[in-house]
Design a protein that fits this description.
Layout lengths: L1 H38 L3 H9 L7 H13 L3 H14 L5 H12 L3 H14 L4 H13 L3 H14 L4 H14 L2 H14 L4 H9 L2
Helix pairs in contact: 1-2, 2-3, 3-4, 3-5, 4-5, 5-6, 6-7, 7-8, 8-9, 9-10, 10-11
Length: about 200
Amino acid sequence: MEFLKKTIVVLFVIVTSFSFSQENKALQTAFAKSYAYEANYQYEEAIKVVKDLYNEKSYSINVRLGWLNYINKNYGSSIIYYQKASAIMPSSAESLWAMLSPQIALEKWGDVEKTYFAILKLEPRNASALYKLGLIYYYRKNYTAAKKYFDIALNLYPMDYNSLLMTAWTDYFLGNLNEAKILFNRVLLLYQTDSSALEGLSLIK
């Protein structure tokens, strides 16, 4: 009896492994076809060949469909697939970064802001996310909030051109003229003829 139980377990493992192998091979073939269609700008076909094997629990499939729908300008569908991917692997920032593109294309700035916050929960010292979040507040003219994120990004990369320039302008609009002057001059260390930095200095009396 014990031997029979062990035999059944072994057979189950073999059958399950074979089934997984077959499914994985089919998915690899589908992905290969989708890459070929994508290379020829046949996005609908690329989507269909992957969607035919759709599994809502597959991170890889959802990310692939998120990308294909984005380049096919199906931005709403792209966001949905990236959201599903993020739910499957919540500790990964990859799908969140990818989701930003369709959100920006739809100008869903509130959602973009939330996505950057979600990224920063996973990657608190990601300078790019900090900088981009600062930009959102800067263009809303919320300079106090913008400075908070620009300052962190600048402390991580003190000679980064974009962080230097935007922090300088933010300080200017906040009335921190001495700090702005110092930062504009640091920009000129990188690019001596930078028009934006020169304009900022010309406005500081």
